[in-house]
Amino acid sequence: MSQDSQFHLLDKLTSHTNSDCAFHSSTTNGAEPEHHHLPTVPSAASALSESSWKRSTEAVRHFRSSDSEACPLGGSVYQSTTFVQEQVGSNPAFAYSRVSNPTVDQLESLLGRLEDAPPAVCFSSGLAAETALFLTLLKSGDHVVLSRSIYGGTTRLFNELLVRFGVSATFVDSTDSANVEQAITDRTALIFLETPANPTLELTDIAEVAKIAKRKGIPLAVDNTFLTPILQQPLELGADISVYSTTKHIEGHSVALGGAITSKDEQFISRLRRVRKSVGSIQTPKNAWLTIRGIKTLPLRIERHSQSALTIARWLDQHPEVITVNYPGLESHPQHALALQQHECLRGQSLHGGVISFELTGGYERAVQFSGKLQLCNLVEHIGGIETLLTHPASMTHADVTEQQLADAGITRSLLRLSVGLEDEIDILADLEQALCASRPRSCQTVVQERPLTDVQDFRLGFDPQVIACESESKEVVCPVTQ
User: What is the mean pLDDT of residues 145-172?
Assistant: First the structure.
């Protein structure tokens, strides 16, 4: 590949600006593109108003100390099971940490503000949040409509637990909102979606399903874990409830379990808190504090995750040994137009999260070999950490899902899910490239020419995809080696 073509492909891989976003660069009448867009500065009267803060400012600065004697910049951890009461019947705001805690309260207030909603309700994990949601809204005899491609733990809850209490579920292809409406019965008490879907990255039009739900008088809940409130606002799009595993992108450092639910329906929130009190599933103070710390950098992290994910998705998409790439940011994604409409823009960039899924030639055996050859990326059951993480959904996150449900959702045994971290894109691409070479079947490795990757552009692009296509034993294979 010539140097000119390398730079041309690099520009295509790393271009993130989208015409649907504000402040995008443009060229008119042959003029040079504008690069310096100055934002409109608020008037002096409103510049310091918290109500006008952007989400990135809210994430960093939302803090109010409950301590009358000190105001620690890093926040306080109220690591106590109980709190002293002045007298019998005083009814203090904080009495017992299974019910409420000042540190958890801070996190709930922050998460609510990020969705322009009342304080959220925080739980010990994402599944604890879902369980409390279902206990709040469902009873024996009720029916739920869910996305067919959804977190495996959610499917397990319905298949193994809720069914024992007389709750039935229908999993549908929610990419077509008509399927959701057709699945609704007179017993349907909830519509539960995950978009982007885990792990297929299918999208559901939240606004369209919200219209159906409101017409039928059924609450709509959306699992927004993959994008967080920074990149998608389910409540603004018409959903009644947003659900999160804060363990993932929101906390972002793989150190604190947590879950959260937000809603603008204060009566529902009150009922949800009652359920949490009854089952004892509140988040711990230390994990709440760690999550608050993570949120401070969430806007920056999710932006970088998204930028790198688009570059890597484009790289995978042009690779001859990759059969399928699922990422809404790709122009080739069947719902790319919906992604541009439904996902938020940051600083003129259309961003679609840090998670990709893909399939390699060679099926399940190749996927296993590939995952075992990675050196930088980690094989784990997780997304949203600062490190790049690989998951084999069929045997890990969705291991308890039936074979039929996996097939219906398009989750094959060769599908891999990649959560792109904050490492340099060059290093991530280099690791993927060497793992592809190392996992190639022996029949494709009869002629191997090693070459050092010393040039930065060469390291980013790695190889000429036309050279490494392993269609026959006589094809030359060029594998990179680091010096």
Answer: 96
